[in-house]
């Protein structure tokens, strides 16, 4: 009896003990801080993640690009959330806050890295063969992170003006108590950072020596830092952020853009063909300063190929407003100027070659390659209204789309895509704008700014596959500005500029309507082209985004106020 | 035979029984509340536990007991009763309300008469009359306090949702569901094999289940053997099923007109020309302008199912058995399942169940219980479940494309591809198949340790369940296309465009393990049951261990608990329970895994007090009260107590675009480590009045606190990372339950019964760390869980002037005929800030009630069960049906007839539009409907053949033929669809069943 009791009791105790071990059983994988910051590749990975949060716009608003919130395009599906920007649905409670959330999450990780990296100890790897190369890369990472943090702050200030600013890793209490720092101070911080780190980053990663980052060309370079600085100064000089019209700001902007152009020259970054700006190899194009590398995908094509093409779902459709910005090839005049040579029956003949590269037109063949039927964007056509989702403007998007992508059910493929963050072309235009504003004349230049505004623009128009007539000398200021705006709209179409340019110029009223082209097929097979102006919602409050309503409510700082006009 | 045993017992125990005084032979009869004999029951004498006799098939027994002895009756349905002999030579024992079982598991079996807990139960005869696929689908209104909501889908996936006492918390709201005290899937349990369904509601009732019982528990008790009997039962049910309230969609001509109207409303020119409209109307060009009634082409009207049951129940004195063989099949509604050689594309369900429950008395003191249940299940369906056949029916208009083109291709076009073609999916897509194999087994060993000390026993239980489901894909792809007219000449189509897509494929042959569950339970305990004079005590000290695993990560759970349960009674009038449980779970944070759960409860049997003796209409009256703390191990995420670093965004950093992976800070670590707790209070009453009326009344209140919620509601995004979880949620829940049941033999030939169950359960979120809201009425706090919020519609815009003079509606551009909303905050804008609470919720009704009536006269009888709900709201946002045309969908006749037009401004629904109209198509009062309903759940007409007739057959002891109607009537406000299931999926079925049941 006694023995039985002892045995029985022991078994019970053993089982209890065994089961207590099981209580510690888990299957989740949480890695701790040490795991990340005591090993080179994971530490590098922490920075990679900050790169991974870089923005690009292949349809950030429910497949709608910001271009569709601007006058470059119209989103074919009324249900698309990008239409909220233009139909009155945009409000603090529908704040389109992806950039807000994404930037602060990147900034936190940047601050976290900068607060941590100096305490990292890799001495245990000292005798590894690649130690020196690894340390060389590691020591540079914090400068890349400072660039990235500045870049994210630029996105925030461009979008919201004054924003909460910190270089610390915040607790929730601190985050909720942060006030707003003026856009001016944010811009100053960015410029200061750029100046501080510029010389610590290489211009070309492919030319690094014994360095673990050798050939990691996706990293931020010295040129990218210069580009960020130049664009920041351009915005800081622009009317929206330069209320007192401080002319010196244009001076600084011009110098900064010139520094980009000069450095590009030094490191062999130069203008190439316009058509090289997209496609699977665009990241290698000669004028790229920084591209946001994305990867192989076909969603962009799926979301923008014409409806009526198998797999095509239609999306961001270029407007007639954009098409009208393309000048006549021969005369360099706008379609509606006297003597331009525009033929209303053949509206797409003899246009700036960039039109055909950017916009898919009625009758275009092989768009996309696997489509054997010429595009029929006219009313009743296979790709035209009244089919649900057919283009409302008469056009489909080509730029950034890869014609060789196939999204049909049985034969689909994906192709590499990269988004242009900075390219040289932009900085010729930025320079032209700044120097024009600073010197007050399209042809003016001086010893410091050795190229006139028109000269800078003409370089772009003279690409091998564009060859548009140069801006004539002696343009009036108004005439130059009109042609400059036009050129900028054309050259940078769908690259995420127009939406912001109209805002920083305070020309928001241009967003109060767009023009559509309604094409009708006549009995004899010819087409008639009818423009139709479509009203859109514009209000001056839209120069800046609304701060998300929930953020206003969560912040307990009296300095944390809504942007003007949005508080109602 | 009985006499022999009696003799033997008397001889064996001679001295003992004589010590009690002179024993007499007593003849007794045991009947249930309806007067039916209870066979196979064990009758013992309290003072002489060695004496045991058993009731025969007429419920009769004979026993030797002295005048003052108490007889103990232990019936096969686990009801128990003690009766004082009182000098009677003939005793009729009625297994009344007070003797009904209260089985809270772990071998603790009490009766209503002595229980201090809030526990409801239903017996087989209460619920086994729906010819349901499984026990879950049999429980509608039969158990007080159990809310059962009908599930959706076709027969194979058709499972109900249960709630006990409503919504009690923010997440993890479902009750614990068990079979024979072990958490198990009840999808494979047939109603035939179930003896009792027990619902455990208050704190002491669920305390022994540790972390699992806070939402209440449902315990399915399967049938066991009978003493000294041998019964063979056979039943066969054949059901004719039909889908009531199939949606009615517009024909092609109406659809085309609706599209034109929508286009014009949207400011576009009409989509279809007059010629095209004519073509749809005349049907002259069926391949170009088709008019397909997809429902008719895909589905037939009547499906069928069959249920066979063969059971053996009985045993001797040493061993009892219950064995069931169950076969079921269901044939769905696919109209043409045999269009392919060698296989069918019908929706099919076939199942075989085999259960054996054994009770073996190995020795006089050692008993073994063995329960084994095995299931083989096979389901077959056309295409893949992801093909979503009914979803396609709810999408594709009659005018979309022909079923097949003239050249024999399946129809499909750029807007709706060939995989939207419902007929192609039922005939051309081949099939997929699922197999489920389940084994549920448990074994309990019980050792009487009276040798150590009287009343002591020990037990151990092992249970192992294993279910796995396999899936075979035999689908194929196909080519599709259609022709469209591109030009008309002289009123005739003259030019066409062709569309083709997809390609013909061979049948795929892949298969995989779909899912798998493995569960292991182990328990060991000692019981101490003893009576000392007026005092009775029943205690259990036990330890239980559970391992649950399903395939995939983070699906392995270990729990264990140590419990001490005490039940004390005094004079059979006063009862008090104390239970103390320490439970542990590996879900919780280290150092915080154990939790203590104390509960106390008491009952007072008033009817046994002297002052009640003269109140003759009260047969039994008991008051109950209970309080307790129940812990919950529901967690927000695995490892919430650690700061996580997780894989972040990667980037193509390399010179060849090479990918580098990223790391980032994950969710911040929680700084609070407790777990959700439930504080439950219950007051109740059980009564039997007027020899047949049973009444149960309960009032309950519960506070759930420390519910896990995200702290993110209070944190700005400027923080830049995921907020931690915190124990910040509080939900209050309260309500009442009233159950009555009346059974009476008016004459020996006439039996009537009826009853009513009513449950009201309400709740309130006291705290959920809600994000700050711009206006007080937007707050979710202080409203109930799952409350619906939306805009208050105040009609439709009459014209542009009306729009111009109204507050700006910011969702999308509005036009006449769009919904006009109330500006709640008077800011002149209509946006998300104008959403108010509307109706109730659409998850669980606050009121759940049922009533049933029955009558039997000379073998002819009927019974009917009505069940309804109240304080329940439907959000009618089903595409095509209520939200038509947008996103290339269809339109229902109902919408078309009730739409706004300039001529019909007093309409039910807004204007037609083909564009996604954010203004109209969002949660608002136009789409809300009172979801309360009353259903006739089942009605049965039957005839039980008279014994005199059956006696001639010599073999057949009982015979019953019956006709049942299942869910035949539904009174509700939704009307167009079933109020319980109104989405774009399989409509609910109604059935007529004919059946026969024979006993041998």
| Major β-sheet annotation of chain A | 2 strands, antiparallel
Shape of chain B: globular
Trace the largest sheet of chain A across and list its strands: 1-3
Average the pLDDT over all residues of chain A and give the rounded result. 93
Strand content of chain B: over 45%
Distance, first to last CA of chain B = 21 Å
Question: What proportion of the residues of chain B is helical, as a percent range?
Answer: under 10%
- Average pLDDT level of chain B: 92
Determine the most extensive contact between two protein chains: A-B, 92 and 87 residues
Number of strands of chain B: 51
Number of strands of chain A: 8
| Biggest beta-sheet profile of chain B | 22 strands, antiparallel, barrel
Low-confidence stretches of chain B: 1-21
Percent strand of chain A: 5-15%
Radius of gyration of chain A: 27 Å
Q: Helix coverage percent of residues of chain A? A: 25-40%
The number of helical runs of chain A is 18
The radius of gyration over CA of chain B amounts to: 32 Å
SS-based class of chain B: mainly beta
Description:
The complex is a heterodimer of chains A (568) and B (1000). The radius of gyration of chain A is 27 Å and the shape is globular. Chain A has 18 helices and eight strands. Chain A starts with a helix and ends in a 14-residue tail after the last helix. The mean pLDDT of chain A is 93. Chain A is mainly alpha-helical and 568 residues long. The longest helix of chain A has 30 residues, at 131-160. In chain A, α6 runs parallel beside α9 (222-237) and α8 (183-197) packs antiparallel against α9 (222-237). Chain A has a two-stranded antiparallel sheet with strand order 1-3. Chain A is 39% helix and 8% strand. Chain B has 1000 residues and is mainly beta. In chain B, the strands form twelve sheets. Chain B has a 22-stranded antiparallel β-barrel. In chain B, strands 10-15-16-13-14 form a five-stranded mixed beta sheet. In chain B, α4 (252-265) packs antiparallel against α5 (274-282). The radius of gyration of chain B is 32 Å and the shape is globular. The interface between A and B is large, with 92 and 87 residues.
